[in-house]
Amino acid sequence: MKIHCITALAFLCLASYITQAQGNKTKKRPNIVYIMSDDHGYQAISAYGYGLNETPHIDQLAKEGAIFTRATVTNSLCAPSRAVLLTGKHSYINGKIDNEAKFDWNQDNFAKILQKNGYQTALIGKIHMDGLPQGFNHSAVLIDQGEYYNPNFIINGVKQQIKGYVSDLTTDMTLDWIAKRDTSKPFCVLYHQKAPHREWLPALRHIQAYTAKTYKEPQTLFDSYDERGTAAKTAEMNILKHMNWAGDNKVPPPLMNELGIKEYLSWDKAAFNNNLGRMTTAERAAWDSVYNPIMADFKEKYPRMSQKDLMQWRYQRYMQDYLGTVAAVDDGVGRLLDFLKQNGLDENTIVIYTSDQGFYLGEHGWFDKRFMYEESLRTPLLIRYPKEIKAGQSSKALVQNLDFAPTILDYAGIEIPTDMQGKSFRGLLNGKQHKWRDAVYYTYYEYPSIHMVKRHYGIRTDRYKLMHFYYDVDEWELYDLEKDPQEMHNVYNSPAYSKVRQQMHKKLEDAREYYKDSDEKNNKFLERLKK
Ligand code: SGN
Ligand code: CA
To answer: Which of 15, 179, 185, 500 is found 20 to 30 A from 363 (Cα to Cα)?
Structure first.
């Protein structure tokens, strides 16, 4: 009898030990908050040191975690970047090569894998893809590009207009979902801001301060693209020539008419009317009280302004509104970090901040992205996870958005599918891994299309970048990023670089083979687009 009791007791102890161990294991699995903004260039995050604006809350992630200074995307465009995030595969493999191509939600994605492994998942904000998102227990997404004021959301498949400012609403919904989650499971939320995407309408609380500032011009604002190829010369993303006066710079259509300013894009005036038309009367009055005096001043000066003056004026207008929208994104990160702390979630939650790509903030005279040149190839990347990531790290590793899916699965303790093309960068941050890829591969397809950036692909190493522009040209560009960080001189044909050129061609061929890309694949996409 006694022996039986002891055996039973031992069994109970063992059972309780196993349950506890399993509980610990489940408890230990980290939560993930993946924050992605839209078109947020690293130059507009103060932790990157450009001195344009202050983003104290995003910076906090770098202070308490790590910042990557050379993170890049594989295809600098919104929807393709999101498809790469979800699948961990290059555009030509996941099929979403440009904003027009259809994304096949039936293919596997890391959110589906998390779900299968006991995570609860949510997608909130911009996704820029048709179809009901798959892999999420909850989705509240903007339609297409979304709207800044009083936007429409599709909440679990049902359209609803919500009163408020988009960045604040996206934050509210994210915090609300975390608060109401099933606390027995770990969670992963994709918290995707629309801002600072065109046409840059800041929140009312930020317009006064941001329009009152003057921003330092980039050295290449008046670039003439002399030592570059045809693609840079023919791209339509120059602030002076190709930006919308009303939609982007907020010059009211009647004032454009009065001054004889022509629309560059046919929807310029309509964009202004649609965007501002979403405001309530009170919101519009607050907006006008700040913007009307700016426009009155412009009206008075306009007749005497040279082309150079106009470029400078338009650059300031652009920065004031763009950086104004970043401010609400930063506020949201602050609210999220406070919320995690207040709810005891700050230690066991990985917080990632990034953008769907980089952006030109006047460099080379440009806005928009698409090119494999640095400002749009690179994307901000900051990550905080006190359990594993020592505070204050800065990494130059050539990580990419291709690596997000594998990295997140790795942190969640889930096996990474072998067909994912990215690699987990977890080991780079906990000091367990020192070797990393020495080159990143890039492809871009959306041409002919808005901004007219020619199709290209290429490779970037620590020091050099080789690019091939094709379709209606056949041009190569090579840059020495150490000597020419602004990429002003294409040295492809320079005899001094013949050896480098040869080595870079070899690297490019190897990368195309490794990542399963080829001219045949490109031709296939040309056919599809012609149809
Ligand atoms: C819109 C913008 C473009 C922008 C694309 C893609 N024009 O077409 O400037 O490049 O979106 O952006 S707008 O006048 O309609 O704002 S992306 O981030 O979604 O890829
Ligand atoms: Ca984007």
So the answer is: 500
What is the average per-residue pLDDT within 36-47? Answer: 98
Q: Are 521 and 485 in contact (CB under 8 A)?
A: no
| Residue with CA nearest ligand 1 atom 18 | 78
User: Tens of pLDDT along 354-390?
Assistant: 999 999 999 999 999 999 999 999 999 999 999 999 9
Contact between 181 and 339 under an 8 Å Cβ cutoff? The reply is: no
Closest CA to 429 of 382, 474, 470: 382
How many angstroms separate the alpha carbon of residue 367 from the centre of ligand 1?
Answer: 11
Distance between CA atoms of 104 and 479, rounded to whole angstroms? 36
Degrees to nearest 5, angle at CA 216 with 250 and 73:
80
Ligand 1 pocket check for 449: Cβ under 6 Å: no
- Write the secondary structure of 500-518 as one string of H (helix), E (strand) and C (coil): HHHHHHHHHHHHHHHCCCC
Beta strands 456-461 and 393-395, pairing class: unpaired
Phi-psi group of 51: left, alpha or beta (phi > 0 → left; psi -120 to 50 → alpha; rest → beta): left
User: Which class in CATH covers the domain with range 29-200+320-436?
Assistant: alpha beta
Instruction: Indicate which residue's Cα is closest to atom 16 of ligand 1.
Output: 198
Query: Coil, strand or helix: which one is 439?
Result: strand
Whole-number Å distance, alpha carbon 307 to ligand 1 midpoint, is 25
Domain boundaries, the chain: 29-200+320-436, 456-530
456-530 CATH: 3.30.1120.10
